[in-house]
Specification:
The structure holds 2 protein chains of 2 kinds.
Chain A: H1 2-20, H2 25-41, H3 44-49, E1 51-62, E2 71-76, H4 77-87, E3 94-104, E4 110-123, E5 138-153, E6 156-172
Parallel strand pairs in A: 1-6
Antiparallel strand pairs in A: 1-2, 3-4, 4-5, 5-6
Chain B: H1 2-24, H2 31-34, E1 37-39, E2 47-51, H3 52-58, E3 65-72, E4 75-86, E5 89-102, E6 105-113, H4 121-134
Helix pairs in contact in B: 3-4
The chains are: A alpha+beta, B alpha+beta.
Chain lengths: ~180, ~160
């Protein structure tokens, strides 16, 4: 009985131990690798579970038409996860990380991660409904500077907030070889 | 005393789990609320012959994220949120509708929306009702009878 009580107490106290956990730079790097791989797989549940309860994404996006003002939007976790679901429709996608800088806060509770990414994927014109995933003329190359804050929630490392600054350019479909996956 | 420690701990765990489940559940109006007849935009707020559930279903565009919240009893707010691809990049669009139960009808009392959407209450009511008519949706029971009347509703012969 004594052992059972002890186990029960440990189970109850387990989430509290997360509050004491401190972030290490190598853990954050592993987490970012995991997040990048989830994006490469375009599997929404995996992408979504790496975002904290109150996650917020702020995106500034300069489209390929330079004369058009960049769009800005802020979305919460719910909408972000829904958008991640749309991601799975893509049949060709490449994500490359060019750089990463990890700055763990002195208290070890959060870390600021600044990374530069290049994504390549089909570009479907907003007014057109593609008849097949291959029904496009251009690939879009999106260069992004991502400043994210990661922290610990329920014992796991998660993104708490991401500020992304993206710039889009179009290249001819035939000029890039991007395998289907 | 020691014999009770185990069961007590188990009770704490089960209680904690139940509290978590109850507090983490997303809010949504009851079936009774969404089955209420949707009120028209005339001064008498005549029933439209369509339920709130019907008008919301037929007016659905795209696949927005839907969030219901209740600021007070018999009042529910529905927020539709989506991201669409514009020529300049992704754009967030939203519409927020507040519905209030008055007697046996549910009224649309306020609308907020992003640029490009109607924000007038009357205009939105008409849009909801006309969408249900265009889809030949099933009216509420009282309007199935010949000669029944309703806001913008053509009686059956």
């Amino acid at each position: 009985m004594r052992i059972a009580s002890l186990l029960a107490a440990l189970l109850v106290l387990l989430p509290l131990t997360a509050c004491q956990r401190s972030l290490e730079e190598h853990e954050v790097l592993e987490f970012i690798e995991k997040a990048d791989n989830a994006a490469r797989k375009r599997f929404a549940p995996e992408i979504c579970e790496l975002r904290g309860e109150n996650f917020e994404l702020h995106l500034t996006f300069q489209g390929h038409e330079q004369q058009v003002e960049p769009t800005e939007l802020t979305i919460d976790r719910k909408l972000f996860c829904k958008e991640a679901g749309k991601f799975s429709r893509l049949r060709q996608y490449r994500l490359e990380r060019n750089s990463i800088d990890i700055d763990v806060a002195n208290d070890g509770k959060t870390a600021r991660v600044t990374s530069e990414y290049v994504e390549t994927m089909p570009y479907y014109y907003p007014d057109m409904i593609p008849s097949t995933p291959d029904d496009f003329q251009h690939f879009q190359v999106v260069e992004t500077t991502d400043e994210s804050v990661v922290g610990i929630e329920s014992g796991d490392i998660v993104f708490l907030r991401s500020d992304c600054n993206s710039s889009q350019s179009l290249v001819g479909k035939s000029s890039i070889s991007l395998p289907y996956d | 005393m020691r014999a009770l420690a185990g069961p007590a701990m188990l009770l704490v765990m089960v209680g904690g789990f139940l509290v978590f489940r109850l507090t983490s559940k997303e809010e949504a109006p009851s079936r009774d609320f969404i089955a209420l007849e949707f009120a028209g935009a005339d001064s008498d707020r005549t029933g439209s012959c369509y339920s709130l559930e019907t008008v919301l279903l037929v007016s659905r565009e795209g696949n927005p994220s839907r969030t219901w919240t209740s600021p007070r009893e018999d009042v529910w707010t529905l927020e539709l949120d989506d991201v669409v691809q514009g020529h300049g990049g992704p754009i967030r669009i939203f519409q927020t509708f507040t519905f209030e139960k008055v007697d046996e009808l549910v009224r649309l009392t306020s609308v907020e929306a992003s640029t490009g959407y109607l924000t007038g209450v009357e205009q939105n009511i008409d849009q909801f009702v006309r969408a249900a008519q265009a889809q030949r949706s099933t009216p509420v029971d009282r309007c199935l009878e010949p000669g029944a009347t309703g806001y913008l509703f053509a009686p059956r012969r």
